[in-house]
Predict the 3D structure of the following.
Amino acid sequence: MAKKPRDAVFTTALWDGNSKIADFEKHLERLAKHAERLRITLPESFDQLIGQAIIDMDEKYDDNRLLNITFDCVKGVFLTKSRDLPKLRNCNLDSMTIPMKKWLGQVTGTKHGDWQFYLGAKDIAEQNGVDIALLIDEFCIIDGDRAAIVVIDEDGVAYFSDSIQSVQGITLEVLKIGFAEMGIPLSKAKLNERLVARSSEVLALGTGIGCCKILTIDGEEVGQDNSTISSMLQAYLAQHYSNTDNWTDLCEYSK
C-alpha cells in the first residue's frame, strides 16, 4: 500500500558516490518549503542529520549517482537510497500525455510520500514506446514524470508552468542564470497546446535526465530542428557540475 502523502518529504540530488552533493543548499531549501506545505516538522539542524546519514552509508561509488534523501516523519528519520544515473540523459526524447493526478490541500506540487503516480506514469510511457510522460491538467502541461517542462516559443522566450501543482525543479533553478546569460527571458505561463504548437523547443529538465529535448508529444513532432538552445543548456550544466564550488562536502555538515 502506498504511503500517505504527508508521511514523508524527499528530494533527489546528484551525489558523487562518496561525501559530496551538488547544489546541496538548493535541496535543503526545497525540502524545508515542501515540508512546510505538507505540515511536516523537520528536525532541528536537519542539514547535519542529512550529512551524517550520507556519510554513514555503507555503499560508496567512484562515479556520480542519484541519491534520494527522504525524511520519514512516521519513523522520524532521514533515509537515503542511491541509484544509477539514467541512460537517457542530455538527449532527445519522445513523450506522451497523461492526466495529472491531483491531491487536495497543498500536497500537489511537493515531493511527498505518495509518489507512486509519478513512477506509474513513467512506466506507462515506457510501455507505450516513449521515454517520458507529460502530466496534463485542463489542456496544459503541468509537469513531467521526473522533470520540469520548459517551452521555448518562436520569439525566443522560455516558459515554465505557472501552476502551483508543478514541482519546483532544482535543475530549472540552476539554469535560470544560464537562460539569462544566453539572453533568453524566462517567465511563467500556462503551457497550453497553442504555446507548444508554435514552440522552437520543448525541454525536460531534471537532476537525473539533465536537459533533454522533446521531439514528439503523442506521436506529433514539436519544435524546430535547427534550434540549439538545448545543446547550449547542456553545455552550461556540464560546466556547472564541473565547478567544485557547486558541490558541498557533507563531512562539514556531519561534524
